[in-house]
C-alpha cells in the first residue's frame, strides 16, 4: 500500500471518527430528535434556495451530508413510536387569560369561542404569496439593502429570530408585533423546550409571558455556533432544506403603530430609558427628564408618534445601533430572499392562516392557536395616526419599509403618500 493510499485511508477514518463524535454530542445535548421530514415539508431543489446555490460546491449534498442524513433518519425511526403516542394527546383548551403583565391586561384577549373558517383557496393563497416573494427576490430591477447577499453572508447575530423545533421539523422566524408571543408559545409546546414541574407545557396559554420571551427558552440559529462550531452553517443548511419554514407578517405601517402603542403608550421601563429619553431630548427639546417611566408619565412626558417617526428617519439612529426588533424591517429579521419559506402567514388573516398551518403540520390535534387580542391595531387607523406626519416624512418612511410592502404583497398606501 502506497503512502498516498495510507494518507487517504487515514483521512477517511479520521472524518468518520469526527462525525461519530458529533452524533454522540448531539445525543448529549438532546438533539438526537433531528426530524428531517414533516407532513408539509417537501424536498426543495437546491437551486431554489438562494442560500445554497451561490456556489457549486454547495449544490449537492456532500458525502458527509448523506452520512448525517442516514444516521439522523435512523434516529427518527427509533423515536417515532414515542412521538406518535405524544401526538395522540388531545389539545387542552384554557378558559382563562394569563395575567400579571400590563400589556396583556390592557389589550385583553378575545375569548369568544369560534372555529376559524378555512378557505378552500388556502393552498392557492399560499402559492401566490410564495410566488410574489420569489419573483421580487429574483427581480434585478427591485433592490434593497442585503438583498443580494448569500445565506453564508448573513452574520450569526442576525439569525437569532429563527426558532427551531427538531421534534417536528419546523423553523419559525418570529416578527415582533405579529402575534409572535403566541407563536413562540406554540413552538415551546411543540418542541417541549420548557417544563412546568418536570412536565412539558401542553397548553400555550399556560406559559408565562416572561418565559416566552426569554431567549434561553428557544433553540435559534444563532446558538448553533456554540453547539456545533464550524459545522453550524452546514447543519443550518440541512435543516433549511428539510424542515418546514414559516413566518407571519403584517402591514408595515400598522406594525409601526402597534409597536409605538405597546412600547411608548404603556409604561415600559426598559424602552423609556433606552429609547424614550433620547427621543424626548432630540426631538422635543427636553433637557432634564425623570429617571423612571412612572415619573415621566405622571409629568405628562411621553414620546409622541411624530417623535417616533422622526427617530426612525434620523440617519444617526442606524449609525448608533441597528433598529430594535419591534420596528426592524421583516426582510432584515427573516431574510426572505436567502431562505425559501414554505408558509407565509399574515396577521390580517391570522385565524384562518394559523388553523391552516397547524393542520398542514399535522399538530392541530396537539394544540389550538391561542385567541387573538380583542383591540388589535387596525389598518383603518393608519390615516388618523399619520394625519400629523408631514408628507415628506411619510414618503421617506415608505422608502424605508418599501421592501416589506412589496415582498409580502401589501399595497402601496397611496392615500398617505400624496397630498
UniProtKB/TrEMBL annotation:
Highest taxon above the source species: Eukaryota
GO molecular-function terms, A-Z: sulfotransferase activity
Location in or out of the cell: Golgi apparatus membrane
Protein EC: 2.8.2.-
Topology in membrane: Single-pass type II membrane protein
Alphabetical GO biological process terms: carbohydrate biosynthetic process; proteoglycan biosynthetic process
Transferase among keywords: yes
Keywords, in A-Z order: Carbohydrate metabolism, Glycoprotein, Golgi apparatus, Membrane, Signal-anchor, Transferase, Transmembrane, Transmembrane helix
A Gene Ontology cellular-component term: Golgi membrane
InterPro entries: Carb_sulfotrans_8-10, Sulfotransferase
Transmembrane regions listed in the UniProt entry: 7-26
Class in the EC hierarchy, top level: transferase
Protein family: Belongs to the sulfotransferase 2 family.
Name by which UniProt lists this protein: Carbohydrate sulfotransferase
UniProt organism field: Pelusios castaneus
